[in-house]
Amino acid sequence: MPSATLPRFALTGWDAEDIADPYPVYRRYREAAPVHRGESPAGAPATFYAFSYEAAARVLTGRGFGRDARVASGDPAAAPVPVPAEHRALRAVVENWLVFMDPPRHTELRSLLGAEFSPAVVDRLRPRVERLARDLLQRLAGRREADLVEGFAAPLPILVISELLGVPREHQGRLRANAMALQEAGSTRTRGGAGRYARAEAAAAEFTRYFRQEARARRGGDGGDLLSLLVRARDGGAPLTEDGIVGTCVHLLTAGHETTTNFLSKAVLALRAHPEVLDALRDGPGPAPGAVEELLRYDGPVQAVTRWAYEDTRLGGLDVPRGSRVVALLGSANRDPARFPDPDVLDVDRPADRHLGFGLGIHYCLGAALARAEAEIGLRTLLDGLPGLGLGGQRVEYADDMVFHGPLRLVLDLAGRP
Asked: Is residue 417 packed enough to be buried (19+ CB in 10 Å), middle (13-18) or exposed (0-12)?
């Protein structure tokens, strides 16, 4: 419940200053209560926000919470995903995203994909990721000013996941544009007006045509890419439809690039704000895995995830009725002093405690090992290859998004001017 001094919480309507640094806002609410009831439109389910680590972890791991609004409401006609019904192509794609599935469907698909994202497979991919990172860095060499998002942080993960899917390089630019259009339709984004759903619908339709064509071309083949793997699994009897293959490819492409893009951009911002940490990482062999974990905790790329209450429950001192929407605020939980001492301090020597940057429970990030490798390699490449990374001015513009959180643009003065 809101306190006498705090309005009902929402993830929309934030001003630019609070979007860039949401942690003081989280702290005010978390100190008042671990869970707050938020704003809900008339006729919509009640919405609760979990601010503390304990409450957020329970939402992510408890059997009383899940991803399907139909189960929560008991209404099979309820919208399964947060996409307006008239946007049919977009809804068909999103319905087949792993992140919106419950067991047993979630278990089957995750088991199928899990081996392709194992630490052993990722270790074999590291030389390819390193090569892609060096190639991107060479394009920035000699520039006095560069947008780190456009020039490095965004293309690196899209190139990596495209290679894994077997997407030809000449198609990658268009697919990234479509992925960005899908992201623009996120429920917490308010800029772009009604046209954002129309753009996302067009992108989903183009994605569907593209991956259906690519899947059909791979039938009977023995390719080693992920798309070929999905086609062979479907043809071998796995519970996968053509729409399921399309949705999985789109999900891997979109989720796999947006999170790493935001991590790299925000890690650079954090290190520029802490030059002593930047210098220590540059002079050492790192960034070590512990540094990446701390940067993920300190300012993670995903700030919130949604679940539905499958039963009446009590959370953080509040009664949460079945059918309620419950949002775990990962960014707030990762700054909870009850879990992390001095949580607002960036300490790369901090023990790699169980932060929520990759989630928790059955929906723990499938690509966590790959994301960690991209983060380590990307940061190492920037630290080694851009001597002026910690110097000079910067211009930052954040996306109007409090879920997938990060800069749209991060323009750095690479000449190192004060």
From this structure: exposed
